[in-house]
């Protein structure tokens, strides 16, 4: 079977403002592949500090062991810079999380991960892909809107008994 991986190039131009001289070019090569157990081992101890405070190693581990879940990782060389996952339910595909390493945000990695999981979701033959996001998480909401997700509902005080969850969905077919 031919294994597909996605390679993404991010080119960052650094300017010296005085005189607008190009100081250097940073070429970021990002590869997206299925998350393996050794990827999990590499990030499990730094999940909350470097990725997202909502993730614990046990949750991620059980997601990886769930036959209805699929997880992907974004890597720069061997360094993991983000990951994302979906859960395939009888009704639709749900995004369980998408997260970029804190030090690597705003470089296009979230775009790349979401694009990939939408493609994976299309291969499941489900009609839609959905997610829940904190109403205050405007960065993630922007990302989802950019890919055509629309608000279809909300769950009151879903996060910490305070913040509402917004339910967003996108038709896959
Ligand atoms: C949401 C998240 C994955 C975005 O990752 P990222 O790698 O920084 O995203 P990208 O650089 O690819 O940006 C993708 C889009 O996100 C939105 N975005 C990213 N950073 C933003 C910011 N600081 N302000 C507003 N919108 C922003 C924009 O729509 C952006 O599109 P653009 O590049 O065309 O402007 C990242 O912020 C993250 O890991 N957050 C914590 C985990 C989380 O909240 N996940 C969502 C759970 S529902």
Label this structure with key terms.
173 residues, alpha+beta, Aminopeptidase, 2 domains, eight-stranded mixed beta sheet, 5 helices, 25% helix, globular, binds coenzyme A
Description of the structure:
25% of the residues lie in helices and 45% in strands. With 173 residues, it is an alpha+beta fold. The longest helix has 14 residues, at 109-122. The structure holds coenzyme A. Residues 52, 97-100, 105-111, 131, 133, 137, 139-140, 142-143, 146 line the site of coenzyme A.
Gap from first CA to last CA = 26 Å
Q: What ions, cofactors and ligands are bound?
A: coenzyme A
Estimated structural class = alpha+beta
Number of strands: 8
What's the SSE blueprint?
Layout: E1 6-16, E2 21-34, H1 37-43, H2 47-51, H3 57-65, E3 69-76, E4 79-88, E5 93-100, H4 109-122, E6 128-134, H5 138-146, E7 150-159, E8 163-171
Parallel strand pairs: 5-6
Antiparallel strand pairs: 1-2, 2-3, 3-4, 4-5, 6-8, 7-8
The structure holds coenzyme A (COA).
Describe the structure concisely:
By secondary structure, the chain is an alpha+beta fold. The chain is built from 5 helices and 8 strands; from the N terminus they run ββαααβββαβαββ. It has helices at 37-43, 47-51, 57-65, 109-122, 138-146; strands at residues 6-16, 21-34, 69-76, 79-88, 93-100, 128-134, 150-159, 163-171.
